[in-house]
Amino acid sequence: MSDQNPPTVDVLVIGGGNAALCAALMAREAGASVLLLEAAPRDCRGGNSGHTRNLRCMHDAPQDVLTGAYPEEEFWQDLLKVTGGNTDEQLARLAIRESSRCRGWMRRHGVHFQPSLSGTLQLSRTNAFFMGGGKALVNAYYRSAECLGVQIRYAAPVDRLEISDGRFRAAWVGDERITARACVLAAGGFESNREWLREAWGQNADGEWPADNFAIRGTRFNQGVLLKAMMNAGADFIGDPSQSHCVAVDARAPLYDGGICTRIDCVSLGIVVNKFGQRFYDEGEDFWPKRYAIWGRLVAQQPGQVGYSIIDAKAVGRFMPPVFPGAQAATLEELAGQLALEPQSFVRTVREYNAACRVGSFDHTVLDDCHTEGLAPAKTHWALPLDTPPYYGYPLKPGITFTYLGLKVDEAAAAHFAGRPSPNLFVAGEMMAGNILGQGYTAGVGMTIGTVFGRIAGARAAAAACKQGADHAAA
């Protein structure tokens, strides 16, 4: 007997960024009818993906836009290092291996890549950059989805889900109930939900709420509504709610959608101090693309959740210039005054750092031998004295890109309930990235996870919808 109330579509995709679009395209290519619900209006579509620039890719030999080789084991070791081992190796290696097979498919859907980059970013070997950035990628995917017949609805936030015994039944947009044979959740984390951030970070010893001082680098629409819905439905979760992709951004950055241009990239070329003029971490620990995402959390742990990146004239031209000009002064005392730092403490910090520098052969493209001795915290690479005016200072605050608390999945991208995979509910992108990113980050890996698991989730959802349709037809 046929279904008396047939589902609206085969596959429902909830979300509008990279992972959601990859899922929708894969499901449609597999022959499924697809409806994509994007919470944002059309002019804000794409979630955080519009602010991205590149994809970290495994490859065993030089390729079109990638130099050298970046084999699986090296990629894995890089990920292992930045996460401190807080990662699911099976899922991580799956993402790594599949990253080598994504670019051809991406090109077929209109994504273009630019020639490999050289310079201090150290990414020409590991990361493929999108021509036109993430916004161009998102637009290309939407064009392709429309051409393939994917139904797209904007300003359609899903506020609740119907799930029974681990099986997706329906999603609700306001008073509208939308059914589907299978569903992919790819609606991002909860970084735009200030109340949830306060809950996750709590109060510090000074009675401050650190999260109140965070900028949200991406979309304002990632409120974590579906994460809460899945919690209420008894789904299995993974990750620390206080962990996130959190970088140091200019303290003058907007509250939302500041994106990459608000990042301060001169940290490794100078020192970083807190509001008391004191250093608090090794600025030269590793190459910037591997360690830039620790600095937001480090600044968040400082009094007032503020820091200051300090350089001198020798650093100018060696980093991507920020969108806001820094404070500039002929003396350290004058710079302290402009940044509202206590002059004596700040000048003492700089002088102690200068005296501890052991300058060898400075080279910002390698882990060089310029380091400090007898200083805590040490600066292990690129340690040059701050002695050449003018001096520059950039105020910092934490900028969250996406949170790592997410849904536990398996290699089929299936959501889990009490340890059992759902037969028709799949997860991709930031909603499951915590399986691989328990902490830390390395440039481009978020897009790797979203692209790989978006493709897996879409293909699996189409297969699940086909099976359910066949089962109903046979009933």
Any descriptors?
12 helices; elongated; 475 residues; 28% helix; Flavocytochrome C3, Chain A, domain 1; eight-stranded mixed β-sheet; 2 domains; six-stranded mixed β-sheet; alpha/beta; FAD/NAD(P)-binding domain
Spatial extent as radius of gyration = 23 Å
Low-pLDDT residue intervals, each spanning 5 or more residues? none
DSSP strand content: 15-25%
Second CATH tier, the architecture of the largest domain: 3-Layer(bba) Sandwich
Largest sheet: 8 strands, mixed
Helix amount, in percent?
Answer: 25-40%
Instruction: List how many beta strands DSSP finds.
Output: 20
SSE map:
Elements: E1 9-14, H1 18-29, E2 34-37, E3 54-56, H2 72-83, H3 89-99, H4 103-108, E4 127-129, H5 133-148, E5 151-153, E6 160-164, E7 167-173, E8 176-185, H6 194-201, E9 215-216, H7 225-232, E10 237-238, E11 244-250, E12 271-273, H8 288-291, H9 295-300, E13 307-311, E14 327-329, H10 332-339, H11 343-356, E15 357-358, E16 371-372, E17 391-403, E18 406-407, E19 414-417, E20 420-427, H12 445-474
Parallel strand pairs: 1-2, 1-8, 2-5, 8-20, 9-17
Antiparallel strand pairs: 3-4, 6-7, 7-8, 10-18, 11-17, 12-13, 13-17, 14-17, 15-16, 19-20
Helix pairs in contact: 1-5, 1-12, 2-3, 3-12, 10-11
